[in-house]
Amino acid sequence: MGKARIHPVVRITHWVNAVALTIMVGSGLRIFNAYPAFARKGETFCCYPWEGQPIPNALTFGGWLAGARNWHFAMMWVLVVNGLIYLGFIYLHGEWRDLVPKKSFFRDSLEMMKYYLFLRKRHPVQGKYNALQRGTYFVLPIVGAVAVLSGIAIWKPVQLALLTDLMGGYVWARYWHFLSMVALVALSAIHIFMVFAVDPYALRAITTGGYNPEKSPEARNARPFYNLFGRRKSKEPPEAPPPPVPPERPASPETPSAPPVAIPHPSGGEAPAFPGPAIAPPSEPASTVPDGAKQ
Amino acid sequence: MELTGAAAWSTLLAACDSRGPKGAEKLLRYAERKNESLERALFRHTAMDAPIAGTRLTGKALPSYFISKTVPIWNEGERGRWALEVSGLVSRPLSLTLDELQKLPRTTQRVNHYCVEGWTAIEEWTGVRLRDLAQLAGAQPAAKYVDFQSFDSGYHESWDLESALHPQTVVAYGLDGRMLGPAHGAPARVYSPTKLGYKNTKYLTRIVFMPVRNGGYWSDQGYEWYAGV
């Protein structure tokens, strides 16, 4: 096997983080449920529409307030130490170069989004990670740092009052802690979704380190759930001319709204990316539906 | 390989709403002890709580917790006159009536209340600094912990001496300019912004200086014993 796509240190810290973060979020939500609001007693809070509504217990961890607190205050060390090992490693070993957004970050991100929204045919040329990934992996540690600092601020609001004051006081520090958690959960959810929807081969890269560059999303020209849409052959050179455009059906005033009926290709995966020539619309639309299509 | 992640996730999902694996208990207690050491190392008597300027008193919105079935009220007919006992490792054990307590040097402080549940409140407490009581009773050097006991069905919580001697730790008999009511621990209670609410024993009867800690009502049930903020 060649060089691992992802260094063992990054792989280990990734999975330790996955477990630690899950426990921190679950136990944190359990703690939140003891007082699912932000306002100081007798006051109102401007910026949270669900004051007083607890999180479903099924999404929490720890069983009860004290249990959740004990987990939270133990696992926080795993999260912080693991995070510092990761950051220290990628700084010393150079991985940060793949993660810091480039000058062209906004342009590249726009191109990626256009590609995902079918407004662009070819996957933009990327390095190890595309612009959206770079952005996500760059922002994650920053949001994590906000979560840790706001967490310390609500853990020690008297002994470390300076930090709590910096956050705008205890009530706001608690709010930043909650919001940074929401951001971490959202980024993680998108991350996990994209792994399964675009690059399931990355699961191997993050566990054993193995990766076949020919299976990269760029090589496969993979959009989210690319396998559900028409696919091109992966060996096709990037600069290849697009396949011929199907002949346009002449617009006919008699049949303005009938859509072209797709024919299932007999060889499944070999189906062309574009629908074939349109069939002349029938006079009785219901009768043309293939027998099996309505079941 | 790919399954490790999936297996870890399904284990975690199955563990939701649970207390987690039993085997973790020891580790959690170890972490709690280590956290306590760190928190005690961080603790400073010069670190004082101060509510943000311009915030108003919580007043009647301050929740009232007790463990008895009804509000604990000191019944003079049954128990005689209420007096606060200061005992244990002290040279001069004290028994102070409410009048005597009020004659001692008094302090009034507007501070935050940090509840373990996550809410806060701002109240103005009037009372006697615990460090003054310790000096008056002559707390001995061997005293490293202090137990605060109550007439609320045996509720008590023990503290580390450093936190008890913090200048903002008081035996309070006044709340927001009035004498303490039964809902908030009358005739007197411990109040310190340096500890979570549950460490601040209400319905106080006895302050015992001790060489060792002796747990507390909530700390015996799994809440942190130190509970400093």
Set out the fold topology:
The complex is a heterodimer of chains A (295) and B (229).
Chain A: H1 8-34, H2 65-93, H3 105-116, H4 131-155, H5 161-166, H6 170-197, H7 202-207, H8 217-220
Helix pairs in contact in A: 1-2, 4-6
Chain B: H1 2-14, H2 24-42, H3 76-79, E1 83-88, E2 94-97, H4 98-103, E3 107-114, E4 120-129, H5 130-137, E5 145-150, E6 156-160, H6 161-164, E7 170-175, E8 178-179, E9 189-191, E10 204-210
Parallel strand pairs in B: 1-10
Antiparallel strand pairs in B: 1-2, 3-4, 4-7, 5-6, 5-10, 7-8, 7-9
Note down, in words, how this protein is organized:
The complex is a heterodimer of chains A (295) and B (229). Chain A has eight helices and no strands. Chain A has one domain: Up-down Bundle (Fumarate Reductase Cytochrome B subunit). In chain A, α1 runs antiparallel to α2 and α4 runs antiparallel to α6. The longest helix of chain A has 29 residues. The relative contact order of chain A is 0.09. By secondary structure, chain A is an all-alpha fold. Chain B has a domain of 148 residues: Sulfite Oxidase, Chain A, domain 2, CATH 3.90.420. Chain B has six helices and ten strands. In chain B, the strands form two sheets. In chain B, strands 2-1-10-5-6 form a five-stranded mixed sheet. In chain B, strands 3, 4, 7, 8 and 9 form a five-stranded antiparallel sheet that branches. In chain B, β3 and β4 form a beta hairpin. In chain B, 38% of the residues are buried.
